[in-house]
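Researcher: Please translate sequence to structure tokens.
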Amino acid sequence: MMDSLCVFCGSASGSRPVYTEVASELGRLLAQRKIRLVYGGGKVGMMGAVADAVLAAGGEVVGVIPGALVERELAHHGVNELIVVDSMHQRKAKMAELSDGFLALPGGFGTLEELFEVVTWAQLGFHHKPCGLLNVAGFFDALLAMLDHAHDEAFLYQGNRELLLTANEPNAILEQLIAAHPPQNPRWIDRTET
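Model: Translation complete:
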């Protein structure tokens, strides 16, 4: 059962309209499926597009944003709940706590860092929630090739490579995330040791 999905994505819109179009389509689908959106709390770029689409379709949105970024990222004060935290670490921890799964859309360093942290947490057994990547217009092709290369070079085990679900369109990735049964990896270390 997936009641809430954490979406990582850019505070920029990207160079092509397809990025925000797909973010909006994802938002509509989340609202239709009654899956609450948990995201970074901004009202601009990809973040704004997905949040606005969920809200316009009658869905629920929870934004989590550090106080220092409220003005810089133009916090979305129209969401159902805006949680202001003290740090980026608290932001990620709160978003993870509130979510049943994770999905990355196109974005920059922050999006990639957030995605890889939750996938690493799954690898270490900190959580057993599905992690996905929405490969809009081939945006992540080079990244996926890099992950396959890491596997081929024996830096990434096949079971861990499979922790990151991938699809090219919103409905397909949602279906995968909802149906996923992530492996119950043993806990390598305690979260307090990180």
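Researcher: Any highlights?
Model: The mean pLDDT is 93.
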